[in-house]
């Protein structure tokens, strides 16, 4: 006959039963992670009075010296989550940059704070809460903050870019990356992993770029996608443009280049406006040279979308098939007849792009205080 189980024995049984369930939920993510998760349920850590949620926790340290990891998340102010980034106990610096194809942790999560200031950065969801912990937002939280700003901002001060969470965990394919920006004006923020922190560090400050300039770039780039669709509908993507290239392959390679261009344009502000970015990353030393290289060097606003298209696709090559040349001519005529902006450049000097970007930085800094 079984004896009566003491309260202490029952508590131990319940504890280890719950620990076993927690470990099963975490799969291969180590016993200690499950134990930490269980203890958090009984005695939750609070961030600004909000419980630290374990669902976003990642057991992997990023960086060659085990520099960073996400230990959980807290609820944000705009329907999303703020991920809690923890610097490793042996890591001396937040900055971690590994050049090469397999980058580790890229950038410094304090960069946005350096440029916008603590208050404006906090409105976007980035805040340093201790020497070893920084809050970084997910895509939903960033977009909610952008929407909140735009609801009260003057028309000329609206933020032109938006953010989304891609389905892929790591790198977004070039075609998707370019098309989402060109068609919808959206930039990705990965759900997890080091790519998500890279997206915040390098691309969130795309909010500073002037809408007029970004919209002209999107119009220029969009005609490449339009022409690709036009060819695909006529089953002509496999046609030879010259002896070496099929027209579809040439366009897809150019779209890869558009993805690189978008990447450079949207990481421009963090390079150009942040005095804490090392010269080894920016490639140049003086402030004005950085601005010219990272922002103005990627804006060719004086080209109309038509000029951009003609310069991008050398369809007039003597080896190009007559059928392809005919379709090219028909496409240009259709665009001219249906797209009022097809032949329009943007009459903005590069100096105006510089001045407007800095003006918008000051507006966002001021607006953050008003949005409380």
* Category by helix and strand content: alpha+beta
Shape: elongated
Helix amount? 40-55%
Low-confidence region ranges:
25-43
Count of DSSP H/I helices: 15
Terminal Cα separation, in Å? 66 Å
Which whole number gives the mean pLDDT? Answer: 80
Oligomer kind:
single chain
What does this entry look like structurally?
The protein is built from 15 helices and eight strands. With about 375 residues, it is α+β, with helices and mostly antiparallel strands. A four-stranded antiparallel beta sheet has the order 3-4-6-5. Strands 1-2 form a two-stranded antiparallel ribbon. A hairpin with a 5-residue loop joins strand 3 and strand 4. Helix 6 (about 175-185) packs across helix 8 and helix 8 packs across helix 13 (about 305-310). The longest helix has 23 residues, at about 210-235. Residues about 25-45 have low confidence and may be disordered.
Protein traits:
single chain; 372 residues; alpha+beta; four-stranded antiparallel β-sheet; 50% helix
List the helices and strands and how they pair.
Blueprint: H1 7-26, H2 31-42, E1 46-47, E2 50-51, E3 68-75, E4 81-87, H3 111-116, H4 118-123, E5 127-128, E6 133-137, H5 139-152, E7 162-164, H6 174-184, E8 186-188, H7 193-203, H8 211-233, H9 247-266, H10 268-272, H11 279-282, H12 287-294, H13 305-312, H14 322-338, H15 350-370
Parallel strand pairs: 7-8
Antiparallel strand pairs: 1-2, 3-4, 4-6, 5-6
